[in-house]
Amino acid sequence: MNRDNKEIEANEKHRYQLQLEEAISNIVAFSLPVFGGGYVVVQDKLPNYVVPDLTDFKLKPYVSQCPKTAESAESTK
Question: What's the predicted TM-score (pTM) here?
Fold first, then answer.
């Protein structure tokens, strides 16, 4: 293995370690410890996202960076 491959492998291991630490911190944040080891997830601590049904929604999720200029009632006088 050359030096570049070793660096890539080390970066992948570090990224995996960070993902593992984040997953563990999420488990601890949303759960309670149990006697004898382990955790029980508390549903009240989990984030609950209320997402509306947008199947027949007419607008698109895009907002133009250059909006059209609209004339106001004051500017038409």
Answer: 0.35
Determine contact, residues 43/32, Cβ cutoff 8 Å.
no
Walk along the chain (77 residues) in steps of 10 and give the mean pLDDT of each run. 73 80 72 77 81 84 76 62
For the stretch 9-27, what's the b/e string if a residue is b when 16 or more beta carbons lie within 10 angstroms of its beta carbon?
eeeeeeeeeeeeeeeeeee
- CA 9 to chain centroid, in Å, comes to 26
Rounded-to-integer distance, Cα 60 and Cα 56, Å = 11
Helix and strand totals (H; E) in the chain: 1, 2
What does R_g of the chain's alpha carbons equal in angstroms?
25
- Name the one residue in this structure whose structure tokens are 């989990």: 46
Task: Measure the CA–CA gap between 16 and 29, rounded to whole angstroms.
Answer: 20
Which residues share a beta bridge with 31?
41
